[in-house]
Structure formats: structure tokens, C-alpha cells
Amino acid sequence: MIKGSIVELVTPADSNGAIKFESLEALVDWHVVEGSAALLVGDTLDAALDLDAEERLELWRRVVWQAEGRIAVIAGLSADQLETSLEFARAADEAGVDAVLLTLPATPFPSKDKLLRYVEAVAKAVKQPLLLRSRAERIAPSTVDALARIEGVSGFVDGASDITRARELLALHLPVGFALYAGNDLAAMPFVLEGFAGGVSTTANLVPRMVRKLHDAALSGDRAEAEALQKPLQSLLQAQPEDNLPRAVQWALIEMGRVAESTPPLALSQAKDYASLRRALRSAGCAI
Question: What is the model's pTM?
Fold first, then answer.
């Protein structure tokens, strides 16, 4: 079971979509040093890159090679069609990843029976532990319970932010070894304090050590320390524009010197976003 901070890694790329592999490899090394628990690679944050199975195979291979077993690598299989997810699953197996994650379909949201059949098909195709994620729509606890009992499914990432939801899921009699994860940075601290195994974080792209320490404190039950660490993250969370989060995160990484500059330079949607992100990075202790 993976426990702690799972970084939903933003793949650095040029404006034409070409991946900056040298920068990517440097980011992998950085997250190893900072103590992140795992890297989620090639999922919804990279949707704009529109990578096919062959391109994903190269991406996952490069990350696995660079990780050298020092950090777990999770491949994102999410796709609009089941056939595509199955194709991605074959590529993930060939790349040698440690686990795979499937973000469940949201529009239109399938019935419970269709959802279970969809996940069963993917679970049969993958050879690694399968994590599931729900973002756009809350799934009933009874459905989460049914999903957890599918052979090969080992965890569920929930996108809710209210503590009542966390307690509902923790009250289920889930299989031994099945893990629950918070699906957003705002929920990670309270959810892990309640008993979740960790969380999937986009903010950990920028401040991995701070996010890792927050998870460590919450996992150990140190509420005071976890709450203290959450405070400096607030401004950084609020400064990330929702309309194009991957671009904003990559722009911030360039500002920090972690990713090579793009040509032409990356542009954010609104002029105010530049100043807001710079102030938030400074307040979080990022050297820029």
C-alpha cells in the first residue's frame, strides 16, 4: 500500500506538446529527495498533451528508469473509451510501473452496473494494483464498497472535501489492504487525520517537502503540526487558476528554475495570475 503524498506530476512540455524529458528526469530526482511517496504520471493533468499509447509508454518508461525503484510510479489510464484505457494498461505493464490509476467516467455518469463492468474489464487487463478515482460526481458509499471488492482494485481516491464524506467511507467494511486517498489538497489534512492513507496532490508539484511533511504529520496523528503546515499552503492553493492548472504549475516550475524555459514562453490566462503565483510561491518558501 502506498501511504503519504502522491504527486500528480505535471509533465513539462513545449508549447507544441513535445515533452521536455531532461526536465522531467530532474523533477523525478527532486521528488525522490523531497520524500514524496509516489508519482502519478500521464493522467488528467496531462490531458492537453493528448498522448497516445506509444507516447505514454515512452513517458512512463523514462519516469520508471529515472526513479530506479526509489519512488513508486503510478500510470494514469484515464480515457474516454474503455478500449483506450485497456490499450494504455498494456503500455503501463510494458513500462514496468508500480500501480495504475483509472479516473472513473463522469459525463455521462454510468449506472452502477455499467460502472462495475467497466472497472472489472480494466482490472482484468492490468497486472499492477489498480487505484480508482472519482472527481466530477460523488459515488455512493455502497458503490465504493462494491468497487473495492473487485479483484485487483486496491484503492479509491475521493474528490470530496467535507469530513462527513471521509467518515462515511471509513465506516465501510472495506477489504484488508484497501486504501482510501484524498483527491484534493484541501481535503488531504483532515481526511488523513481521520484515517485515509494519503492524498493525490497537485500542489506537491511545487512544494513537495511541505506537502510530504503535512501527510507525515497527519498519518502520525499530530493534528497541531498538520494544521500548522496547512496554513502556508493556503495562499498557494488559492493562487492556482482553475481554468488552466497544468499550464500554471509548469509556469511556476519554470519560475523556480525546476523546468527549462519554453519557446515561446508559457502564457497564463490573466495578467493578475503571474503576480498572485509569484507572491504565493514566496510565501511558501520557494526560491524564485
Answer: 0.92
